[in-house]
Amino acid sequence: MVQGRQRVQVTPPSPKISDFFGTNVFGVDQMKHSLAPSVFKKVMEAIDKGTKIDPSTAEEVASAVKTWALSKGVTHYTHWFQPLTGSTAEKHDSFFDAHAGLEKFKGSALVQQEPDASSFPNGGIRSTFEARGYTAWDPSSPIFVFEKTLCIPTIFVSYTGEALDYKTPLLKSMEAINDAALPICQLFDRNVRKVNASLGVEQEYFVIDKALFAARPDLVMAGRSVFGHNPARGQQLEDHYFGSIPTRVKNFMMEFEIEALKLGIPVSTRHNEVAPGQFEVAPVFEEINKATDHNQLLMDVMDKVAEKHDLKVLFHEKPFAGVNGSGKHNNWSLITDTGVNLFQPSNSARENLQFLTFLVATVKSVYDNADLLRASIASAGNDFRLGANEAPPAIISVFLGATLTEVLDELEKNGNIKIEKGDNMYMKLGISKIPEIILDNTDRNRTSPFAFTGNKFEFRAVGSHANVAGPMTALNVIVAETLKQLAKDIEKEMNGGKEKKIAIVNVLRKYIKDSKKIRFEGDGYSEEWEKEAAKRGLSNLKATPEALDVYERKDIQALFERHKVMNPLEVTARHEIMLEDFIKKVQIESRVMGDLALNHIIPTAISYQNKLIENANGLKGLGLDHSAAIETIKDVSRHIEAVKSGVTAMIEARKKLNKEEDIIKRAKGYQKEVKEAFFDKIRYSVDKLELLVDDELWPLIKYREMLFIR
Ligand code: ADP
Ligand code: MG
């Protein structure tokens, strides 16, 4: 354990958060202060309606931003974007113009840039002769200062207009959901003009000491420990679950929260998680694009601040085997410009019908597109959570809770009731009865990948490292698709002479029936559920390469295209990038495993084996019983042999697969012939050796040393 670390003292700039919240953001308030009213109006229009910003407006904004940034001691600016690498990218330019001898920031530099795009993944979209891409300012996400650099949130697209990032499809999916949800809302309230998706991200993470991190090549290279015997369970409970947050970690939390708050990220809760060394941070929900940018930025902030505290923060989904993994719970809802959360049940029967309409549509969309949702969260890291019998399973299902289950069951059954003119339909169908508050904490199911939690859906299967734009784009699109269909189905009923409310109820009843199989209230971790789900015909796609197959489907490509979110070329390009990413990650893990085993584990085990042999010979020479020593030698030898032969065969498998030209086959090969065939097997023997070999000799830092920070 690392002893005597200096604790970093953290003092907030002010006891009142409101004194420093958003001070590093050039947000609406700053713009209002520093821009002429006519310019400010144009920027607000661009934010609200997505209209283009003209060059003279851009010039004015750039000038105001520059003044603001210089006053904060900022020297450089960058377009800040989210390429498909999974992290954020920046290229810093100085404000200083050597020719002019002063600081400059042109409107054109604010609005558009051409980063050297050739080094970002593009999945074959950019051919070599047209390797350029450009970034373009997204005024709906505020400009901010981070690490003395002015950061301008941008989209990243190819010269032919295809998206090369996560943000572009997300922004388009926000339009899609608005387009589809608005007509439905207007069935209930004609005053609604816009529907926004909102998102609150609960972020789980591990924290370990920086020096211990650096001493584990697997954590450094792969973000995950490929070997390591898990600590005793009692230890976990004692040290963490019931414990308070260790002071070092608490100081770290305080500091990154302060930095986040200055950046306008509304972090609000923090606590210990189940596993030792695991914690969670959650901001208050925001409009989905902002929440996504804020989550990406928050991860960067945490990473940078951890460094100062001699800590390392791990966002990998499963850094330690046998210990709980980390997710990123995506709390998603739809909110109108009139301030109504469409997933908030109320005491008004009319609003409750609207609530049920959106609820049922969402459930139906998950049923219709479970495979797409599954693909949207697929990654090499997340496979360690989803596929294993640990939360949540790779089977997509929806949890609604007892109250709503009852309501939907009623509606489905009682729908046959003949409703005469003047009848109180809401009474007859039991819709008036939905309690306004069903935010009941006892009615929670932690094992569900997609749960209704009182006034929002919580997509809990998203990985802790993921850019949430991917899953949120998928969710927006599938719900938009169902809502479009819903509008058509309601219209059909009404054309058949049905009164509006009756028409809506009839369609809802059908959707409830059609999508019933996706609803599951039981224990998602149990083996029974796997069997039951198979009987219901639900998919259980445990590994990323097979989960990603969905992007090859013509209907899925058409779905994205229909909603103007991605064209088929963009979908297949993304598929390729994700496969490539998967292959690389498994490749790296496999190499790290091989290197550690051959260069560290086996030599150590052999020298320990020699010691044992000496010892056995000594006992024998004295005429003493040495049968126990012989047994241990045999054990050690067996595991050394297993590790050696496993690694050799794994290297052969990799060599063979690297010749495979077809990327889908290569990825599936890496899954089956490398990962499934060898990872667990090799690990099993290494972890056995960890228990057998003298602690003094063991070359790797152990779990129990890493996981309990003081
Ligand atoms: P719990 O998961 O225990 O319900 P919270 O109620 O604090 O915890 O919510 C968790 C996250 O969900 C927070 O980020 C919160 O801001 C967010 N959230 C709450 N209401 C909504 C909503 N209507 N839309 C999106 N996110 C929401
Ligand atoms: Mg939650």
From TrEMBL:
GO MF, one example: glutamine synthetase activity
Any single biological process term in GO: glutamine biosynthetic process
Span of domain GS catalytic: 166-601
Gene3D superfamilies referenced in this protein's UniProt entry, alphabetically: 1.20.120.1560, Glutamine synthetase/guanido kinase, catalytic domain
PROSITE patterns documented for this protein: GLNA_ATP (PS00181), GS_BETA_GRASP (PS51986), GS_CATALYTIC (PS51987)
Domain GS beta-grasp: start-end pairs: 75-161
Annotated InterPro entries: Gln-synt_C, Gln_synt_N, Gln_synth/guanido_kin_cat_dom, Gln_synth_cat_dom, Gln_synth_gly_rich_site, GS_Type-3, GSIII_N
Pfam families linked to this entry: Gln-synt_C, Gln-synt_C-ter, GSIII_N
Similarity comment: Belongs to the glutamine synthetase family.
Protein name: Glutamine synthetase
Natural source organism: Algoriphagus faecimaris
Lineage: Bacteria, Pseudomonadati, Bacteroidota, Cytophagia, Cytophagales
